[in-house]
Design brief:
The protein is α/β, with parallel strands linked by helices. It has four domains: 126 residues, Glucose Oxidase, domain 1, CATH 3.50.30; 106 residues, PtsI, HPr-binding domain (Enzyme I, Chain A, domain 2, Orthogonal Bundle), CATH 1.10.274.10; 156 residues, Phosphoenolpyruvate-binding domains (TIM Barrel, Alpha-Beta Barrel); 141 residues, Phosphoenolpyruvate-binding domains (TIM Barrel), CATH 3.20.20.60. The strands form two sheets. An eight-stranded mixed sheet has the order 1-8-7-3-4-5-6-2. Helix 12 crosses helix 13 and helix 20 packs antiparallel against helix 21. The longest helix is centred in the N-terminal third of the chain and has 26 residues. The two termini are 39 Å apart. Phosphoenolpyruvate binds next to strand 11 and helix 16. The site of phosphoenolpyruvate has 10 residues, from strand 11 and helix 16.
Length: 570
């Protein structure tokens, strides 16, 4: 009997094959009582040293295979092994008579739970790193290091969740898809799946445990579901869809470097969302028309002090160069209550998403904002640089930001620095108030970039990090679309432009609706660029406009999705 299990889509595509449960190598038995605190301490120390050596070796072996950010994960894990807070917790347990294993598990779990409880998915993902390094030490304590062996044939990897060091033990040639019980679209398995171009479905829940090793699975990464032991007819249909998908992808990639135009000749920019130099290189290689959103948080997180101006200049220049003269939209630092920085002490907030984040925090720390703007302006000379501000909710804020920006420009000029010639200043539209009052913000900016991830969570009152309300937070909801229309209507005929840089821009059914609403630029995950361009080319602007008009009249996101599924361009 076939069964369908629903999860969340994390990487598109269709795959079929046998399930292979990724067994986590945990120690077989855990002694809870120690013999003697000194002996236990020495055992733990030895296991930690072996784990550290293993991590260093892993880093060396993977140096040419992995991007620097992923190598940095292993480095961070080595540092975690010496974390003073963690070691103090271990010491307290050992002093109380616990075995090395019990003391280690308790301290690691408490540390990981602290991180997992933070609302930001970035820190939740760091909890997985802590558990990962925790498991490594435990394996050494049990004297059974070693990762599970992959079968020698292609499989669908099934796991409760996958940790960074586990994914590197997998042979990408033999991975057909990833399915996880937990995690979200930002989980490590999901990111890896997108990079490998294989489908992934995450957050399937405990029902996944009923899938036995070797069971035949059908995975639909776009719909976010899997089917266990599908009927032969379903498999046949899926095989046809898979062949079609692979053909379409190959065709899309062949012309990915060409501009995307609708059938009636309207050019739409398809740029990429980027969070590192490595992403920028991938975006360029995938044919992106530029960077539509550079998330600069990567420069600020996981360090004890803000980067110096010179360091920022070097990084921004490398990114601009990597894009070979194409436009790059850089967003100023977007952190806050949900993404705290150790060097920006902030009081805890009950509702971090409604608190001091984005430009609200930048205004409280003008020195940090000034340094970032100076670095950007210095790096941007000779490049088409666009700078934008996140989380703007009041007209008074954008006025302040614009004046602050002009002041930074004048100071730099007075110091003798040349300024970029091809420069635009914009803001993100992520708050319903900003969308509704777009015409009032417009006089202060050259462009708007709509952040549908936040705009959707604020419009539909559905926390973007809470899987329990993930199904409510669909950006194709007509309430969100009406706000987008408000923004494009305000810009029409002014010579300024509107882009969308939330995940919705790379959601293929949303593409004709967004361009039909008047959006001129879509900024998407680099791997999505070819398919988004291909989708644009299938539509005429007349058809897309009619579809968008119809979408605005619907009552919910499901109705919009069925409308799009039925509407076929010529
Ligand atoms: C958004 O909110 O849609 C967006 C692009 O910004 P982020 O996801 O970084 O909050
Ligand atoms: Mg946002």
């Amino acid at each position: 009997m076939s069964r369908r299990l629903q999860g969340l889509p994390a990487s598109p595509g269709i795959a079929m094959g046998p399930a292979w449960w990724f067994q986590r190598a945990l120690p077989i038995a855990v002694r809870t009582q120690g013999e003697d605190a000194t002996v236990e301490r020495m055992r733990l120390q030895a296991a930690q040293e072996r784990a550290a050596a293993e991590l260093a070796a892993l880093r060396e072996v993977q140096r040419d295979r992995l991007p620097p950010e992923e190598l940095a994960i292993f480095e961070a894990q080595e540092l975690m092994l010496q974390d003073p807070e963690l070691m103090a917790a271990v010491e307290a347990e050992l002093a109380g008579g616990a075995s090395a294993e019990a003391a280690w598990i308790k301290a690691v779990e408490a540390f990981a739970a602290q991180l997992a409880a933070l609302p930001d998915p970035y820190f939740q993902a760091r909890a997985a790193d802590v558990r990962d390094v925790g498991n490594r030490v435990l394996r050494h304590l049990a004297g059974s290091p070693g990762a599970p062996m992959m079968p020698d044939h292609p499989v669908i990897v099934v796991a409760d969740d996958l940790l960074p060091s586990e994914t590197v033990t997998l042979d990408p040639q033999r991975v057909l898809a990833f399915i996880t019980e937990g995690g979200g679209p930002t989980a490590h398995a999901a990111i890896l799946a997108r990079r490998l171009g294989v489908p992934a479905v995450v957050a399937v829940g405990t029902a996944l445990r009923t899938v036995s090793d070797g069971a035949l699975l059908l995975v639909d990464g776009e719909g976010g579901w899997i089917e266990v032991e599908p009927e032969p007819e379903v498999m046949r249909q899926a095989q046809i869809r898979r062949t079609l998908w692979l053909q379409e992808r190959a065709q899309a990639e062949a012309v990915a470097h060409e501009p995307a135009q609708t059938r009636d000749g309207v050019r739409i920019e398809v740029s990429a969302n980027v969070g590192s130099l490595e992403d920028a290189r991938e975006a360029f290689q995938k044919g992106a028309d530029g960077i539509g959103l550079l998330r600069t948080e990567f420069l600020y997180l996981e360090r004890t002090a803000a980067p110096a101006e010179e360091e920022e200049v070097t990084v921004y220049r490398a990114l601009l160069e990597a894009m070979g003269g194409k436009p790059v939209v850089v967003r100023t630092l977007d952190v806050g209550g949900d993404k705290p920085l150790p060097y920006l002490p902030m009081p805890p907030e009950a509702n971090p998403f409604l608190g001091v984040r984005g430009v609200r925090l930048s205004r409280e720390h003008p020195d940090l904002l000034r340094r970032q703007l100076r670095a950007l302006l210095r790096a941007g000379v000779g490049f088409p640089l666009r700078i934008m501000f996140p989380m703007v909710s009041a007209v008074e804020e954008i006025r302040w930001l614009r004046e602050f920006f002009e002041e930074v420009c004048s100071t730099l000029a007075a110091e003798g620095y040349p300024l970029p010639q091809d420069l635009q200043v914009g803001m993100m539209v992520e708050v319903p108030a900003a969308a509704l009052l777009a015409e009032h913000f417009l006089s202060w900016v050259d462009f708007f970039s709509i952040g549908t991830n936040d705009l959707t969570q604020y419009t539909l009152a559905a926390d973007r990090t809470n899987p329990a309300v993930a199904r409510l937070a669909d950006g194709l909801h007509p309430a969100v679309l009406r706000l987008i229309r408000h923004v494009t209507a305000a810009v029409e005929g002014t010579g300024k432009w509107v882009g969308v840089c939330g995940e919705l821009a790379g959601d293929l059914p949303a593409v004709p609706v967004l361009i039909g609403l008047g959006v001129q630029e879509l900024s998407v995950n680099p791997v999505r660029v070819p398919e988004v361009k291909a989708t644009i080319r299938r539509w005429s602007m007349t058809e897309a406009r009619a579809l968008a008009e119809e979408a605005l009249r619907q009552a919910d996101a499901a109705a919009v999705r069925s409308l799009v599924a039925e509407a076929r361009p010529l």
